[in-house]
Design brief:
By secondary structure, the chain is mainly α. The protein has two domains: 36-72, no CATH class; 77-239, hpI Integrase, Chain A (Orthogonal Bundle), CATH 1.10.443.10. It has helices at residues 19-29, 36-55, 84-91, 100-103, 107-119, 123-127, 166-170, 173-182, 202-214, 226-239, and strands at 134-137, 140-145, 160-163. Strand 1 and strand 2 (140-145) form a beta hairpin. The longest helix has 20 residues, at 36-55.
């Protein structure tokens, strides 16, 4: 697994190939490999199966005990936050030009990055939102991000409530939510769906990666998740 490239089933050069061939192609092309946390996630699933087998008496002992890959990179060093200049470059590009949200067939491209910046929520949490996940609390519009195994599992299986920033309200997010609610829409953003692992946001994440490349910001440490780091850094500034 440590020799496998990341997203190898999505890459034209490796899609559908046998594992041994994928590894060989990866070495020739110098493709980025699976991150330790991804490998450990797969190993955790294997461990769950073996644990179940042990409980049923089918597997002697627990062969997956302490089976994991060491990650030498601190979580805070895996992604960079966006700088103010980078944020200005992103949000002055064509997607966010005046009137674009009313004209675009994919309003998620307009709203989801802004919501990530102003809430610190993860892409999968935002993309999977439904109109009923918004409500008023003491005069403030809030988002309920609930762990719902039938719809969306949150990280750590935890639920939380996030206030909607006044800037998002000023830009019309509450009006957009109301329109989707009046249309009896199932999802806040039409056309989004979970992948085979019940994870949301793959297509939007891929689109945003292409957007960063077009804006000449193709750093491996700058991804959609950088919005969350920008949000966290802004909170630290406000609390110190």
């Amino acid at each position: 697994m440590k020799q496998l490239p990341s997203n190898y089933q999505k890459r034209p050069a490796t899609r559908g190939k046998a594992i041994a061939e994928v590894v060989e192609i990866s070495e020739k092309l110098g493709l980025p490999r699976l991150m330790p946390q991804t490998i450990n996630s797969h190993l955790a699933k294997l461990a769950a199966i073996l644990r179940y087998g042990n409980e049923k008496g089918w597997v002697p002992g627990f062969p997956a005990s302490k089976l994991h890959v060491r990650d030498d990179v601190d979580p805070s060093d895996k992604r960079d936050p966006f700088s103010i200049d980078q944020l200005q470059k992103i949000f002055t590009s064509s997607v966010w030009s005046p009137g674009m949200v009313e004209r675009t067939a994919r309003p998620q491209r307009f709203w989801v990055p802004l919501m990530a910046l102003f809430t610190g929520a993860r892409i999968g949490e935002i993309v999977a939102l439904r109109p009923q996940d918004f409500e008023m609390k003491q005069g403030i519009l809030v988002i309920k991000i609930a762990n719902d195994p039938a719809h969306r599992k949150t990280k750590g299986r935890r639920s939380r409530v996030i206030p909607v920033h006044s800037e998002l309200v000023r830009m019309g997010l509450d009006d957009y939510v109301s329109a989707r609610r009046e249309a009896k829409a199932q999802l806040l953003f039409e056309g989004e769906k979970a992948n085979s692992l019940a994870q949301w946001g793959d297509s939007l994440s891929d689109w945003f990666a292409r957007t960063l490349t077009k804006l000449e910001m193709p750093s491996p440490k700058l991804t959609f998740h950088s919005f969350r780091h920008s949000f966290e850094d802004a909170l630290r500034v406000r609390t110190h």
